[in-house]
Amino acid sequence: MNELDIAIKAAKEAGKIQMKNFGGQVSRTRKEDGTFVSEVDRKCERLIMEIIKKEFPESSFFGEEYGEHGQGEMKWLIDPLDGTHNYTRGIPIFAASIGMEKKGELQLGVLHFPLFGQTAVAEKRKGAFLNGKPMKVSETSEIREASIYTAAQKAQRQDGTFEATIGKIFKEVQDVRIFGAIAFGGLMVAQGSCDAVVAAKTTPYDVAALSVIVEEAGGRVTSIDGKKPPYISNCIISNNALHEKIAAEMEVPE
After folding, report:
1. What is the rounded CA–CA span in Å between residue 97 and residue 182?
2. Sheet architecture: strand order including 105-113
3. b vs e for 2-35, b when ≥16 Cβ sit within 10 Å of the residue's Cβ?
4. Which domains does the chain show, CATH number per domain?
5. pLDDT tens across 32-58, in order?
6. pLDDT (tens digit, 9 = 90+) per residue, 138-196?
């Protein structure tokens, strides 16, 4: 099996764990950054790493729950359960997110939404697909016509990053949606259902997979000040036509 096949397998196996526990009593705890974690997150990340290491033992990893480890040039960036808050509250928007980079360049991304039965995949220069069908971003080019996704966690609202990243165009766009999972926002951009995502305080494992998928669908992903993913903390994920216009309205939080 090649790298993409293994990533798809790992994401779908994690999805089985998610589905087995969804809707039940899933305990969660709050991490230092204010976000939530559950035992399902940890189980999924352990399983994903086990599946990958069995096929590619020299891999290195950067995951949300277990951090960075390993020295291999094939580096897997994992958000085992994107949308933990949704998941533990019974809201059906959550996913397993797996990206892979070699020599500092993202090579592939997989987003698996088990409750929807949807798997988005992409490899560099090979296009983006949802359940085998090609995806393409929207052609919206005016901010006033745009539908955008954002995140509004408590920490982002309290320290001003929400206002800095989205406040200036909040009243200008057609509508603003909050899905509670950046992977879902990325999928919506890639398939043309949403025009852009503006998110503050992102992590590499948040954006690695969706970056490849959105770019292969014709979109663009950068930090607000133009840096390439995945090692960015404030990002714009867009259909490309809107990218520079949105960036011009944003401020880079200190």
Report:
1. 10
2. 67-69, 60-63, 74-82, 95-102, 105-113, 118-123, 128-130, 133-134
3. ebbebbbbbbebbbebbeebbeeebebeeeeeeb
4. 3-134 (3.30.540.10), 143-249 (3.40.190.80)
5. 665 667 899 999 999 999 999 999 999
6. 999 999 999 999 876 665 566 666 666 677 777 789 998 889 999 999 999 999 999 99
